[in-house]
Design goal:
Distance between the termini: 39 Å
Structural class: alpha/beta
CATH superfamily of the largest domain: Aconitase, domain 3
CATH architecture of the largest domain: 2-Layer Sandwich
């Protein structure tokens, strides 16, 4: 019997070199990178734990700290947290510190901190994003992170794997977000708890890296520990930007790997999807909820604010104007994405359509600044969660969809299938 990607990656990282591991084994693994953000990252408690252990950071070059949720700070408390995070990085001589650079997961991949086959832990549940680069990324709490900082190792149970096969070509106006929502609707919000989802098939093979990052990012919304996509030519081309020439085919799954479940989907049957309040697995076809009026449309976050997302929205919105009374907020996924879209005129197209361009930040995604919803308001968003009160008031409602669907909805003022106004463009 062969091995899944999770089993291969965890075997390579095992503190007991050269062993094979299987699903449900509990092993000690060496951590390749440790990422902390400003929400659950550096804290006095971590300093206390390091002091109690009489330890310092095991390898400063493997630690990355990113202030993204509270940037730019909206109040004194947020400013104090960002200052503490910044000072902590300086005090502990962590050179890889980023601020005002954008959501942490986009920054991690843009700065070359993610390589195939690595095990990366982060103090954010969407650390699973790194699976798009065939790395096993997973979220941990602050206490566990303290142990990783001190030792560079932690224990993990080898996850069972769900194979999600997608076959065929995507239809016009369908994006990776739609693939993700459809998969989650089948699995349920807890259907992959402490498991890995391996996305595969020719549909997935054809996705560009921006789309793969969206897909892996959302894996945790089905409860998954990781969302992995095999290493291939698209991965290699992406890594060339960072001077990485090593190949990583050895971490790809074996043909006879043991999967707990195998799901099969036909991409040609997929239409634009939307997750309705207040669960990510409450998914319907966009056309089934086209009567729902919105107040705000949001394009951004570590899920839906990348270059391809903004380009797709701008292509659809060019020459159009958003509906009267609708707020269209756009937050590029990083400063790098912001700058590229600015230079290429993408932000101008969006602004001309009526969008408000925001800083690269996590603020609106979790309702702490830059687009918080009032009581009774409805938002359609490219973000990853629509829990009760996620983006503001507990009496607001959040629908999740692709950048194309969000842009189309901003034009009409109602949740709208982008095919209805697209003129036939296809990303």
């Amino acid at each position: 019997m062969g091995f899944t990607m999770s089993e291969k990656i965890m075997a390579m990282a095992s503190a007991n070199d050269g062993i094979n591991v299987h699903a449900d084994d509990i092993i000690w693994v060496r951590i390749s990178k440790a990422m902390m953000d400003d929400v659950l990252g550096p804290r006095l408690e971590i300093d206390d734990i390091l002091t109690d252990l009489n330890a310092s950071i095991w390898d400063k070059d493997r630690v990355v700290i990113i202030s993204d949720h509270y940037t730019p700070p909206a109040n004194v408390n947020q400013a104090d947290i960002v200052k503490f995070t910044r000072d902590w990085a300086n005090t502990h001589q962590v050179d890889h510190y980023y601020e005002f650079a954008g959501p942490c997961h986009q920054v991690m991949v843009e700065k070359g901190h993610v390589l195939p086959g690595e095990i990366i832990v982060g103090t954010d549940s969407h650390t699973c994003t790194y699976g798009a680069l065939a790395a096993l990324g997973t979220g941990v709490g602050s206490t566990e992170m303290a142990g990783v900082l001190a030792t560079g190792i932690t224990w993990m149970k080898v996850p069972r794997t769900i194979k999600a096969q997608w076959h065929g070509d995507l239809n016009a106006m369908v994006m990776a977000k739609d693939i993700s929502l459809k998969t989650i609707s089948v699995l349920g919000h807890a259907g992959a708890t402490y498991k890995t989802i391996e996305y595969c098939g020719e549909t997935i093979d054809s996705l560009i890296m921006d789309e793969r990052l969206c897909l892996s990012n959302m894996a945790v919304e089905a409860g998954a520990k990781a969302g992995l996509i095999r290493y291939d030519a698209i991965t290699a081309a992406y890594l060339e930007k960072f001077g990485v020439t090593e190949t990583f085919e050895h971490i790809n799954p074996d043909e006879d790997a043991n999967y707990e479940t195998v799901l099969s989907f036909d991409a040609q049957e997929l239409v634009p999807q939307v997750a309705c309040p207040h669960e990510v697995d409450n998914v319907k076809a966009v056309s089934d909820v086209s009567h729902v009026a919105i107040h705000q449309a949001y394009i951004g976050s570590c899920t839906g604010g990348r270059y391809n997302d903004l380009l797709a929205a701008a292509t659809l919105l060019e020459g159009k104007t958003i509906a009267k009374g609708i707020r269209l907020l756009v937050s590029p996924a990083s400063k790098e994405v912001y700058d590229r879209c600015l230079k290429e005129g993408i932000l101008t197209i969006l602004a001309d359509a009526g969008a408000t361009i925001l800083a690269s930040s996590c603020g609106a995604c979790l309702g702490i600044h830059s687009g918080t919803l009032a009581s009774g308001e409805v938002c359609i968003s490219t973000t990853n969660r629509n829990f009760l009160g996620r983006m503001g008031s507990k009496s607001s409602e959040v629908y999740l969809a692709s950048p194309l669907t969000v842009a189309a909805s901003a034009v009409t003022g109602y949740i709208t299938d982008p095919n209805a106004i697209s003129g036939g463009i296809n990303d």
